[in-house]
Design goal:
7 strands
C-alpha cells in the first residue's frame, strides 16, 4: 500500500514522514520511503543519519504514478511536494495512494492554508479530484494528523472541533511540539514506535487504514 503525506509549505510533513516510516519499520512492516519533494529534505536527512534502515527513493515528478509500483506486502510512505507549489506532484502521487494524510499545526494560520488558501487549491479539493483518475472513481481516504501540538493550550481541541465540524477525519494521536522532533532531521532515529508515532501506527491499524501483509 502507499501513504501520501501532504501539506502546504513548512508544516512538519517531512519530519512526520521520517518518524512515521521509522515507527512502521520498528513495528515490523516492510517500508520504502519516497522523497517526492523537490527540496529533497527527506533524502538529506537519510544521508545525514548515515542511511535509514529502509530504502529512500526519489521521484518528485508528475510521472510518479507511472514510475512507481507500490509494495504489495509492505508500505510505501511518500513525502509529497508542497501542494501549494507543486500540485502536479500531489496529483500524480494521489492517483495510486491508498491513504492521504494532511499534516498541520493546530493554528488558525494552518487551518486557513489547508482549508481556505487565497492563492492555491484547498488540500481537500486536490485529493477529491484524484478520483477522476482512479479505479472506481473514488479518492483515497483523507485524514488529518495534528503536529507541533503545545501542552496546556486549547488550540488542538479548537482546531480539531473545527475540522470535524467540516467533516474531516482527524486522528486522535497527535504529535507534540518537542525539540527532539524539530532537531531530528540531521540525526538517526531510534525508538520511534515508543511514542506518539507508535500511537499513530496503532490507531491506523485499529481503524483498518493499514494492514500487515
Amino acid at each position: 500500500m502507499l501513504i501520501a503525506n501532504i501539506s502546504p509549505r513548512s508544516m512538519g510533513k517531512t519530519t512526520d514522514t521520517g518518524f512515521m516510516a521509522h515507527a512502521l519499520h520498528e513495528a515490523g512492516y516492510t517500508v520504502r520511503a519516497w522523497d517526492a519533494d523537490e527540496s529533497q529534505h527527506l533524502t538529506q536527512w537519510s544521508e545525514a543519519a548515515g542511511g535509514f534502515p529502509f530504502p529512500v527513493e526519489q521521484n518528485a515528478t508528475a510521472t510518479f504514478a507511472g514510475d512507481v509500483t507500490p509494495l504489495k506486502d509492505g508500505i510505501d510512505i511518500v513525502d509529497v511536494g508542497h501542494t501549494e507549489n507543486h500540485p502536479h506532484i500531489a496529483d500524480s502521487v494521489l492517483k495510486i495512494a491508498d491513504l492521504a494524510i494532511v499534516h498541520m499545526e493546530p493554528s488558525m494560520a494552518d487551518w486557513q492554508r489547508v482549508t481556505q488558501p487565497r492563492t492555491s487549491t484547498p488540500v481537500a479539493e486536490i485529493v477529491a479530484r484524484s478520483a477522476f483518475t482512479r479505479p472506481g472513481r473514488q479518492a483515497p481516504p483523507l485524514w488529518v494528523l495534528l503536529n507541533r501540538v503545545r501542552t496546556g493550550v486549547r488550540s488542538a481541541k479548537d482546531i480539531r472541533d473545527m475540522l470535524r465540524e467540516a467533516d474531516w477525519n482527524v486522528f486522535s494521536a497527535m504529535i507534540p511540539a518537542r525539540d527532539e522532533f524539530k532537531q531530528a532531521t540531521a540525526f538517526s532515529v531510534e525508538r520511534a514506535a515508543h511514542g506518539p508515532f507508535g500511537e499513530l501506527v496503532t490507531e491506523m491499524e485499529t481503524k483498518g487504514l493499514i494492514k500487515r501483509g
